[in-house]
């Protein structure tokens, strides 16, 4: 993957040239559209099953785990996440190279950049695992995968905010300042929604109150949507970069 303008590329060897931001948009829209479709089908055709819990009280919305565990929702979600996962690994690597160029002489930030890469890989891997092992198949694996996804996601956001705080301190690009502000806002919102989801989940299990599981489901939706929005801040980070696939000149083939 190459970034930035490359006017010296051999034009005969150029295979694909795509703005990186378009690549990011496609990557984020896949799970967003897939989730909306799964929720719609669950509410329209599997409402009773999707909103059922062991408490047997009235609920009005399914959790995400419930919404993606039935047919055809399961296959729609797996298809979207399968297509989404490879670009996510590529974007994580692009961010690591971006940070490495910015923090070439700053050891702490370089180490944090590496940790951000590991967290991003863990987040994506956890999402893949909880997607392909549904809660109705092997609950313990699904549950632990969800914990890995949420934990690595929050840590990745926190590290990213720290790195962009440093970038904002030394650069005055307005797009980078905007990116930092949006990242901090979305991280705080995501963390609050995670706490709310945990609270409502435990309250539902302990007291079996009507509608509390619905509040958990709404909090869970907000966690996922804010996570997607956080990744979309790449709009300000990679606005002028390009994804290029090309064959090397004859003299540079090894």
Automatic annotation (TrEMBL):
Keyword flag Membrane: yes
All copies of domain CWH43-like N-terminal, residue ranges: 21-239
One record GO biological process: GPI anchor biosynthetic process
Protein's cellular compartments: Golgi apparatus membrane
Keywords attached to this entry: Golgi apparatus, GPI-anchor biosynthesis, Membrane, Transmembrane, Transmembrane helix
Pfam families to which the protein is assigned, alphabetical: Frag1 (PF10277)
Transmembrane segments: 20-45, 110-133, 145-164, 184-201, 213-236
GO CC terms: endoplasmic reticulum membrane; Golgi membrane
Protein name per its UniProtKB record: Acyltransferase PGAP2
Organism: Echeneis naucrates
Source species taxonomy: Eukaryota, Metazoa, Chordata, Craniata, Vertebrata
